[in-house]
Amino acid sequence: MKSASVESAAASAPSDKNSASEDSAGENFELRSLQDRFSESSRFDADSDYLLHLYEQMLLIRRFEEKAGQLYGLGLIGGFCHLYIGQEAVAVGLQSALQEGKDSVITGYRDHGHMLAYGIDPKIIMAELTGRQAGISHGKGGSMHMFSTEHAFYGGHGIVGAQVSLGGGLAFGHKYRGDGGICLAYFGDGAANQGQVYETFNMASLWNLPIVFVVENNEYAMGTAVKRSSAETEFYRRGTAFRIPGMKVNGMDVLEVRQAAEVAFAHVREGNGPVLMELNTYRYRGHSMSDPAKYRTREEVQNMRENSDPIEGAKAELIKMGIDEEKLKDIDKRIRAQVAEAADFAESSPLPDASELYTDVLVESY
Amino acid sequence: MAIELKMPALSPTMEEGTLSRWLVKEGDQVSSGTVLAEIETDKATMEFESIDEGTVGQILVPEGTENVKVGTIIAVLAAEGEDASAAAAAPAAEAAPAAAPAASSAPERPRPVAKASDPEVPAGTNMIKMTVRDALRDAMAEEMRRDERVFVIGEEVAEYQGAYKVTQGLLAEFGPKRVIDTPITEYGFAGIGTGAAMGGLRPIVEFMTFNFAMQAIDHIINSAAKTNYMSGGQMRCPIVFRGPNGAASRVGAQHSQNYGPWFANVPGLIVIAPYDSSDAKGLLKAAIRSEDPVVFLENELVYGRNFEVAQLDDHVLPIGKARIMREGSDVTIVSYSIGVGLALEAAETLAGEGIDAEVIDLRTLRPLDKDTVLASLAKTNRLIIAEEGWPVCSIASEIIAICMEEGFDLLDAPVLRVCNEDVPLPYAANLEALALIDAPRIVAAAKNVCYRD
């Protein structure tokens, strides 16, 4: 298709201009307006207490996922299991800026981290992974299908890209009810090539829906590198055709993610319609547990771990801020114990009763 | 405490593997993320990472060992501050992998609840003639007045007044917030509707025809139908997907298909396919009020037909209940949607030949009202199905299975299906007529099972 190169050239054109105009309806439409605002101040001003709080959340996700990987290895978790290791700063940075009880979150199948970042009990998440009655879906959903309506966390969806239009519907609901909420809809660089994503971009922009589209670009859609799958690899530009401003964010720095969230969420809350954020991140583990990861080198992974790790980065910053290393060690110990407790719970709780086979197929009786 | 490293399961199907290579040796310091070994599974060679910090104690399974069972202790790690040599004494017992729990004995399948009958229409109620089109419109308008959460979304539903005029007048009454024109983007707006339902609204998603809903079938099935189950009953999806279904007239194969059997295959969905105005109105109102996702299949050729509707304040009919359209004692004709009209026409012809046919309108295709079908079979001992749709894996096939499984002793003749020909619907007028069911074919099948010719 010849048009691909033409389009990508067109998409990159506005980024060469440097106007900060926000006239998104007129001639001066600028997809970079938010990016410009963001680059004026790209890191959230957190004190050591707050950064420590974010650090703990990220560490909980890391330790939880490591434990899940281990339980998978022991045969306690079955099927597909997609770990979030390496991407922790994305969910933590973004969700820390949401208003709980007001906003909604939806994501794909790599969902454990987003739930933990929302403060959902690790025990019931782990118990869902092991398929137990005490799991958040009573063992009937598994790793990819978890929900918490209480926390306005709407899944947990196994069909790549489906969560984007479902998220459009959640945003539609916020607007319809006028409840002031926004929807945060996560998807990966792979899902970004699904047609329904663009159908949703179109309607979300057309109807000014309060939604933040988040591409978690971890560089590989299963085993296919971004450059092998995508004509436009700068995902934040992909809203241009729909007049959706884009932002490109370092997803390995939790304070940068948080600051970007401040800019994007304010824009959406003010009734300006959707924003598309690209969070550049990296997953250390395979796509799922059965991924041999032959599409990238060990050195590449090692380099990310050593030089860009979001947790190590936050840790170094905390130490610089004067937090005692012993204190950090204690935190790690506490989180390890919490995760071990979740694993014990998940291992020892009973399987669903056989009668659960027939429950919740329908809500009503006919 | 020493940490035992066990042979991991690295794929959903792995039971054993080859320990190809150790990448660490005894005494090495490791931390979270250090690759310890390469393991060859049934699918690929995978890296085995440490999740703990510590020192490698004893390596218990040397590299190159084949058929190492999942769960076998392959090495021991001394945790921080521990003596690595002390961690060497761990037993090398072969641990059995966590056994898959045996399927517990099959639970009792819940019995369907006793079906509610249609509510009694009080004597003296005014009966008015109304088209199916207007009945559907009135159903939506009444429910929109009753519940602020109900809205209509689809192509040409607002300003154009509906591609088939089913939504006529709704925009004027309810405004653009609740009657929403979409771009031509079925997958997207079906997903937005489904998400809105998950978020607590009550969408009515109109497809211009169900042929176009093929673009959206993923959301209907994977998102709407399965979420309540997958969420352990947490996340409901009260949505109605509606629009014309089945063959229209001379529109060719891509615009002429009955999706009833497709959707009726899916647990988690309610599938309704009414015939007359009264059922269209009463069941659409019930569908909008249902807490479950409903696929509501209409028929373009029936939209303009007039039927009597009771003038009631709130005409709501039970989902899941078939309706006996004509009582008879010699043979049962089961049908739904446009087929009901043909079945009634056939019954008239049969009456003229001395065969008293009972006609059942299923109305709801899922859950199917087996009781009414089997009760009729008990009375007539002969049954045929008239379905405007393909014969293979059809509602007709399902009815036949039910009669075989639960009505075998009642049968005096094989159950026959009268369906469309098993071909894509042709355009030419003569071929189209040949492909579709009609009353004479229903008559012939009824006579066949009555052993009359």
UniProtKB/TrEMBL annotation, chain B:
UniProt cross-references to SUPFAM superfamilies, sorted A to Z: Single hybrid motif, Thiamin diphosphate-binding fold (THDP-binding), TK C-terminal domain-like
Function: The pyruvate dehydrogenase complex catalyzes the overall conversion of pyruvate to acetyl-CoA and CO(2). It contains multiple copies of three enzymatic components: pyruvate dehydrogenase (E1), dihydrolipoamide acetyltransferase (E2) and lipoamide dehydrogenase (E3). The pyruvate dehydrogenase complex catalyzes the overall conversion of pyruvate to acetyl-CoA and CO2.
Record field: catalytic activity: N(6)-[(R)-lipoyl]-L-lysyl-[protein] + pyruvate + H(+) = N(6)-[(R)-S(8)-acetyldihydrolipoyl]-L-lysyl-[protein] + CO2
Superkingdom as given in the UniProt entry: Bacteria
EC number: 1.2.4.1
Keywords annotated in UniProt: Lipoyl, Oxidoreductase, Pyruvate, Thiamine pyrophosphate
Protein name, as recorded: Pyruvate dehydrogenase E1 component subunit beta
InterPro entries attached to this UniProt entry: 2-oxoA_DH_lipoyl-BS, Biotin_lipoyl, PDHB_mito-type, Single_hybrid_motif, THDP-binding, Transketo_C/PFOR_II, Transketolase-like_Pyr-bd, Transketolase_C
Ranges for domain Lipoyl-binding: 2-78
Assembly: Heterodimer of an alpha and a beta chain.
Gene Ontology BP terms: pyruvate decarboxylation to acetyl-CoA
Region (Disordered): 99-126
Pfam families (UniProt xref): Biotin_lipoyl, Transket_pyr, Transketolase_C
Cofactor(s) required, per the database record: thiamine diphosphate; (R)-lipoate
An annotated Gene Ontology molecular function: pyruvate dehydrogenase (acetyl-transferring) activity
